[in-house]
Structure formats: structure tokens, C-alpha cells
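Worked example 3 (structure in, sequence out).
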């Protein structure tokens, strides 16, 4: 390293973690990127240094599934509080869902949301747009406006965005497939859930377990299989959100084996909580899809280990205390915060299950970055990568306290849980978002959309001659020929 190069920050003394190794080294950062990695003596002079002795240095987590409620429900959460919570959780990039008010389904609503995020975000972000019958004419305008991908609601959830028919889903997949964008799916079959919930309501069931009874694992299994078939036919890229059951793993694995470009995520709630927790936590635990029976936990964990499930996300979905503590389970809002506690709880689970911290880096950073065309700019600690870094104490025992979290929502099923790891510093493109467990106010507005750096591979589009656009165009042509 030449003597005249001055880094902005050099981190000494920590243990760097990659998906393949752990090693002690220093990291130099300049102009938001990683300048050098190596021995302390080989680092350039720096404007600032940080002693990370005894700490682990991880790529910042990429959470591809959060609901920051902004615009429309800012009383639950906004981009400022949500990204502050993410920074405290070692998360440096989030993908925010489109079920806001208005829903993100056209260029105008997308532009307005970009303006909100740009002004408030402490960390980087991507924005989803709704993929549904209403947004079908707007797909290309949404891509031009800057989306990370599309969200298709196969089942109902907060915001009550209509679920497209299977016919509409096929046409939507046909349109998106050539763009290379990935479609994230809330994979639950709406008609099954609506029918069962109506019958349970008629019976007078209002207890927390009624929510689980209305959404058995078959609602997710059928939806995953159906979506995979449509993706296989069209060549669309799809991502299965919040995998909650062992039953979903078979259609997911079979689709991967057939060459479908399909990825999947699970969340801490499906690994740490179970149906046994409903009595104690009551409506606080209500989420879509539901937390399921304990026998699902080990298969989901093994699917993470063997790569059937690609990544960890949170489905961070905050609500008020009143909205989560109603006695009638059908009136309880679904979801709870998770972006601030994911890394500590998952590192605790990794230690308990005797996995490696390198596995966690693969699930939380590298794989999300690769699946969304952001690697190695994001999701890696490599020379030239964005300096998105979580510096973590993996020997810190502490107890989750909802009252002390950064999220506006002060109620979650994580309250009172013990963790054995804690992010101490979070760096986003070279700037501290959180330092020494303190939010850095100059980080507000530092976050930027990652869609501009997204580079998805060329898609493998299939059955182009049989798309809705092709056959309707052909029909019109044929009619014109007959008339002539």
C-alpha cells in the first residue's frame, strides 16, 4: 500500500468472517468501499481507527423481507425507525414490501415512496412493487422507476391486497420473466384459508390456535408447488417468502432439481417459536403464515444447512400494543418486529445447534446478495465491495426488552428471550449507522436504493410463443388475414 493513500477508517484486531473461513485481519475503508484487507502493518494511514479486538467482523445482513409501513401507517413504523432498528441489528440493506397506503403498484406511488426512503433511511434499501391484476399494465414503468423486484400475494395478509387468479399469475409471470426481476411470493392459497376461517368463525373459535387451524401447512405447500410450475413454464425467477413448514420443502427441492430459478427464505419465528408458545404469547405470536408445530423446526433448519432454503429474513411487521393484545384472534393484526433481533437470535441458534458463524454469513448476506444480483458489491467483505459491515460481540449474553428497541412497535414474541450475541457497530458504505450501541444521527438520509447496482443474469424465458400477449396478437393477425 503506497504511503500517500489515506483511508477513511481502518478496523484492527477483529476476526473477519466469510462463508468459508474465519481469520484475523485488518480492514481499510475509503470512499465507502473496502480498500484493503490484510495484516495491521500493511494497512494505510487512516483518518480514524477502530479497535475490534475480541469481536467478529461480518458482512452486514441483507434482510429481503421487511414492512416499514411508510407511507400510510407511520404510526406503526416509518423508514427512520425501521432502518434505525435494522442498524441496531447489524442489518445494512433491507427490501421493503409494497403493502403500504397507497400500495406500490404504479410509477407515482413508487416515486413517492423513494422520496420518503431517501430522506429517512439510515441504511440501504430496495423497494418492492405489487404484482397483481391492477399493476399488470404498470410493470415496465415500475421497473423504470426503480424496484428491486415484485411481490405477489397468493394469500391475504395486512393491507388486504387482492390475490390474483392463477390465470392472472401466469400472465404476470410471462410479463416479468423477460425482465429478469425476481418475484417474491406470499405462498398461501387464499381460497383454502378463507373457507376454513369462515367455518371456524361460525363455530365461535376466537382463541389464538384458531389462526393456525385456518392455515394448515397444505395452504403453503399447494401454493409453492403451483408457483413453481408457473415459473418453470415461463422462466420467471421466483422467491418463496417465510417458509414455515416441513411440507413446503419437498416442492421447493423438486423445483430446484428441475432447474426452476427458485429461492426460499425462512424466519427466526419458524426456528425458535412453535405452537407450544401460543398459550403464553397469545395474539402477540399471530403472523402469516402462522408459527407451526415444533416438529417443523428441525426440517427447516436442515433445509437451511443443505441449501434447500437459501437465506434468513425476518418479515419484520410492526403493530401497536393494542393491535396485538385483543382477545379475539381474528381482530389481532398479523406480524411483529424482527429486524433488530434477527442477528442476535440467529447467532444464538447457530451456537446452540453447533453450526458455524460462516453458515450464518452465507444465509444472511452472501446468498441474498447473489439471488438479487447485488454480489459482490453487497453481501461480501472483499476489496471493492461496499463497506457494509456488522461488528459483533459473539460472547455477550443479554435479554431482549421490547421497551428498549428502536422500532416504534414495542411488542414482540422475542421479549424476555436470552441471546448470546450482540452487534456493537454497524457500518453502511463506510459510514457508522450505529456505533458503540448508539444511533449515529448523521446516518439518517444516508441510505440509498440498491436497484441501481442490481445486475441480474440473463433470464431463461420459455414458451414465448404461447404467452397471453403472443396468442392474442396471433389471433388478431389471423382475423385480419381472414378478413383480407
Amino acid at each position: 500500500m503506497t504511503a500517500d493513500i489515506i483511508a477513511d477508517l481502518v478496523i484492527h484486531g477483529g476476526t473477519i468472517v466469510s462463508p468459508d473461513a474465519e481469520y484475523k485481519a485488518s480492514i481499510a475503508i475509503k470512499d465507502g468501499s473496502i480498500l484493503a484487507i490484510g495484516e495491521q502493518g500493511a494497512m494505510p494511514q487512516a483518518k480514524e481507527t477502530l479497535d475490534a479486538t475480541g469481536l467478529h467482523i461480518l458482512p452486514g445482513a441483507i434482510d429481503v423481507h421487511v414492512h416499514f409501513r411508510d407511507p400510510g401507517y407511520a404510526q406503526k413504523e416509518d423508514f427512520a425507525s425501521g432502518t434505525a432498528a435494522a442498524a441496531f441489528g447489524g442489518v445494512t440493506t433491507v427490501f421493503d414490501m409494497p403493502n403500504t397506503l397507497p400500495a406500490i403498484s404504479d410509477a407515482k406511488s413508487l416515486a413517492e415512496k423513494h422520496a420518503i426512503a431517501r430522506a429517512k433511511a439510515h441504511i440501504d434499501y430496495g423497494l418492492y412493487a405489487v404484482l397483481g391484476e391492477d399493476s399488470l399494465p404498470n410493470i415496465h414503468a415500475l421497473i423504470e422507476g426503480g424496484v428491486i423486484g415484485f411481490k405477489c400475494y397468493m394469500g391475504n395478509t395486512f393491507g388486504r391486497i387482492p390475490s390474483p387468479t392463477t390465470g392472472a399469475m401466469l400472465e404476470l409471470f410471462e410479463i416479468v420473466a423477460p425482465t429478469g426481476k425476481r418475484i417474491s411470493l406470499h405462498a398461501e392459497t387464499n381460497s383454502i384459508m378463507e373457507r376454513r376461517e369462515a367455518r371456524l368463525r361460525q363455530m365461535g373459535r376466537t382463541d389464538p390456535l384458531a389462526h393456525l387451524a385456518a392455515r394448515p401447512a397444505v395452504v403453503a405447500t399447494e401454493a409453492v408447488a403451483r408457483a413453481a410450475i408457473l415459473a418453470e413454464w415461463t422462466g420467471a425467477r421466483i422467491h418463496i417468502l417465510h417458509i414455515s413448514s416441513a411440507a413446503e420443502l419437498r416442492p421447493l427441492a423438486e423445483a430446484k432439481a428441475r432447474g426452476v430459478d427458485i429461492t426460499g427464505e425462512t424466519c427466526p419465528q419458524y426456528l425458535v417459536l412453535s405452537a407450544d408458545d401460543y398459550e403464553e404469547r397469545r395474539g402477540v405470536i399471530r403472523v402469516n403464515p402462522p408459527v407451526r408445530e415444533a416438529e417443523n423446526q428441525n426440517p427447516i433448519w436442515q433445509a437451511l444447512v443443505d441449501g434447500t432454503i437459501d437465506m434468513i429474513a425476518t418479515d419484520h411487521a410492526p403493530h401497536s400494543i393494542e393491535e396485538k393484545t385483543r382477545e379475539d384472534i381474528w381482530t389481532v393484526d398479523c406480524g411483529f418486529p424482527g429486524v433488530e433481533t434477527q442477528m442476535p437470535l440467529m447467532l444464538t441458534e447457530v451456537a446452540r445447534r453447533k453450526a458455524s458463524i460462516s453458515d450464518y454469513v452465507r444465509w444472511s448476506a452472501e446468498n441474498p446478495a447473489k439471488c438479487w444480483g447485488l454480489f459482490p458489491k453487497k453481501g461480501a467483505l472483499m476489496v471493492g465491495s461496499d463497506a457494509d459491515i456488522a461488528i459483533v460481540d459473539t460472547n455477550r449474553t443479554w435479554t431482549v426488552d421490547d421497551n428498549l428497541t428502536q422500532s416504534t412497535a414495542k411488542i414482540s414474541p422475542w421479549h424476555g428471550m436470552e441471546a448470546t450475541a450482540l452487534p456493537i457497530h454497524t457500518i453502511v458504505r463506510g459510514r457508522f449507522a450505529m456505533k458503540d450501541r448508539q444511533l449515529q444521527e448523521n446516518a439518517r438520509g444516508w441510505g440509498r436504493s440498491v436497484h441501481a447496482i442490481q445486475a441480474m443474469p440473463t433470464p431463461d424465458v420459455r414458451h414465448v410463443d404461447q404467452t397471453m400477449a403472443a396468442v392474442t396478437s396471433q389471433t388478431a393477425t389471423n382475423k385480419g388475414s381472414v378478413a383480407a
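Notes: The chain has a mean pLDDT of 96. Residues 217-234 form the longest helix (18 residues).
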